[in-house]
Amino acid sequence: MKIDGLLKERDGWLEALDESEICRLASSFRHGDQCAIFQPRKHGAFNVCFFVKFGSPLERWVLRAPIPMTVSKALLDEKTEIELATIRYVSATTTIPIPKVHAYGYSDTGSNGLPFIIMDYVEGCSSKDLRDPKYGMNWMLVTSFVDKLEMREAKHVYQQLADVYLQLRQLEFPRIGALGLPSRETPALSCDPEDIRVCNRPLSIDIVSQEVDGLEPSAIFPPKTTLPTAKEFVDGLLRLADNKLEKEHDQELDLRRCAETLYAAHHFKQFVHEEWLDQSANKGPFVLAHGDMDNIMSNLLFGKDYNLVAIIDWDFSRIVPARLLVPPIWLYGSQLAGVLLHQKDYNQRVGRLCAEIQRREEALDLPPLLSSEWVPLETCATPPLSSHLTIPRKSTRCTGTLFSKKWCPSQLRTPTTHGSRDMKKRLPRVSGRFMEASPELQSFSERKTREQMEFFEAEKGYYGDESPRRICPVPPFAYLDEKYY
């Protein structure tokens, strides 16, 4: 309901934006030259983009501003500074293609009290729209049944991905957080990259979303806080997931049982602390990660002949433990849940990317740093689980089936050890046994179930829905009764 209200408010705000004001703002940074909108505005969850062009000489720009309904006022300038500092630093120290920034403003100087960034418009299509002209479908899906060595276009894309990740891996920093400028008065367009430092908290989509929802994530990651160890950062990410589970009333219990959510949360933490964390790397290396590129395909733009022409949307970039710089989930062309269920297919693509990284390291006479870190990923579930860790809002949604296989008591195992049907049977059994052992978890589950039912009732009244959402039908602690299978 709240999100519905936010979306309506956002749509009304977007509709009311005056494009002539946008043009006047853009013109003020090009000697007053007149400009015009050359394509409809576009928006995502957090930003809106306007596309303007000047006639003589021909030049096209993008004016990008945050949407105030989905980014709280307290975060507007912080988010903008991180993006400006990161673009400046990456542009100065790598060959990663990023649109040139022409102008910017913070909330105290921006139009309508909003910060903005004006940058070059880059013609290209996102990686999710890449098509192979021979097969007429998404290139990543094609590569699942066609030998990649016979597909020059796909190989070319992998080579460019390898180059991007190699360069990101070379950028090491002393602390975890996000990049920032020496001060807000420092000109971001000409700032010496050596003056850009890790001085902001590791801002993320989850922090922004929880702030809008009133869940107070800043108590976990306060502004201007940087971290000296991987453990402190990872503990903070797990606390963000717990914060959402504790405070949010809609846990989508129409899609999954509360016991399964709690089971996944418990074992995900156990996995992170006992297996994922590398104590030898607790104090580094820490490297720059895009923040969105590993999970969302639309941040990479490709032009003619599949040439990578730009990587955009650096506002959630941050400095993280090197173990969190992992191959993108979308190599398989699927969501996190699909990758966990089809690990072999995903790992094959990771292997192909690693092969290109090794070739690139050899060609540039670089030490085999990234390849040595990524080659072991070809045979494990670390990349998707690392992605879960960086997205706390999803950390309990897809991992239950994986952990039910890993920690399933022997007496509850079925003859089949894999497959979605077996997973659907096994997870209720092991999560039910897990809940029975803890009265505290049972009490928490009962509370969350009550909150969810109250939410569904309020939702029914709000929408006037004759068929409201309902709690998942299996009774909370009847998981060991065979009639439910």
Automatic annotation (TrEMBL):
<protein>
    <recommendedName>
        <fullName>Aminoglycoside phosphotransferase domain-containing protein</fullName>
    </recommendedName>
</protein>
<dbReference type="Pfam" id="PF01636">
    <property type="entry name" value="APH"/>
</dbReference>
<dbReference type="InterPro" id="IPR051678">
    <property type="entry name" value="AGP_Transferase"/>
</dbReference>
<dbReference type="InterPro" id="IPR011009">
    <property type="entry name" value="Kinase-like_dom_sf"/>
</dbReference>
<feature type="domain" description="Aminoglycoside phosphotransferase">
    <location>
        <begin position="50"/>
        <end position="319"/>
    </location>
</feature>
<dbReference type="InterPro" id="IPR002575">
    <property type="entry name" value="Aminoglycoside_PTrfase"/>
</dbReference>
